[in-house]
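Researcher: Good morning. I'm working through a list of sequences from a screen, and I'd like to move beyond sequence-only analysis. For each chain I'm collecting a predicted structure so we can compare shapes side by side. This is the next one on the list. No need for commentary yet; just the structure.
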Amino acid sequence: MSLDRNLLLEMLRDSLPLEGTLFAVDLTVSDSVRPKVTVTLDGEQGLGIDECAQVSRRLARRIEEHYGDELSYTLEVTSPGADQPLRDPRQYVRHVGRTLHLKLQDGTEKTGKLEAISPEGGSIELAEILKEKHKEKMLPAVTVPFQDITEAVVVISFK
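Model: Good morning. Structure tokens for this chain:
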């Protein structure tokens, strides 16, 4: 018996806390003899291991109720790593003020400070950083629609 990803997504939505502080970023199901269900969650304020464990227990219960307890699978509920791309517009909120590296639909790339998320949620304001010789120059913020972004990664700085 194979696991239905769409059904798992529905079960996952039902397993999230009602207050809406957490959201699903990704759900994958490996295609193997013993499938692995990997759920990536995030929250506007981040999330901790307790929230991951709570969602994992709720989701496991729903899977067992639907598929039976004989189903052999592995379930991993995790948060996105620091090096993982931002996949959901809600992830940008807590990164305002940080530096992002964007890859855009037209093939260009921009690195800059995330200044704001538009009130209607369809775009971000990015102040691009240009490197000139040994200095950095910050340009005025420009609007970048989410649909133009193919990948966005938070730039980790150890300064």
